[in-house]
Amino acid sequence: MKRLLSVLILLGAAAVLFGQTKNKANSKPLTFSSVDLEGNKISSDLYSDNKLTMINIWGTFCGPCIREMPDLAKLSEENKSKGVEIIGIPIDIVDDWGKVDPRLKSDALMIIQKTGVKYRNIVPTIDMFQTMLRGIQAVPTTIFVDKNGNQIGNAYLGSRSQKDWQKIIDKLLESQK
User: Please, which residues have CB within 8 angstroms of residue 109's CB and are 6 or more apart in sequence?
Assistant: First the structure.
């Protein structure tokens, strides 16, 4: 019941807040240490390999999240040569104590396969919920960070088309010059 209420609140907030958030970028670098969905260790050190990292926070229950994933998969491939990496965080695959729900993890892996996603998806940790994911009110939420892990610009609430994301990516890359 608690999880259902949380999902309903997230969906309601997403409907109300579909646009871009008004909160400015965080002043501290967004760091993390976790594993990807295949169990490989992964950390925020990956930022240093990129000019720009796009972090897409999504849910297995979220239709708009899932519908935009094929576009994000294309963006990932088309922007690698520009120094852009996309990572996903399926926010609902862990419980309140940080334990992975095997059924929801399986759902996430199935969604990733069906949508053609090749970019890494990270298992959120309790530490991530207390820091970089703390202000997330709805999914999908997308944030961008520079090579030092500093958030660039605002967080984006709601899904977007490949064309719209590309415009945002190009603008952010230009601002990094």
Answer: 37
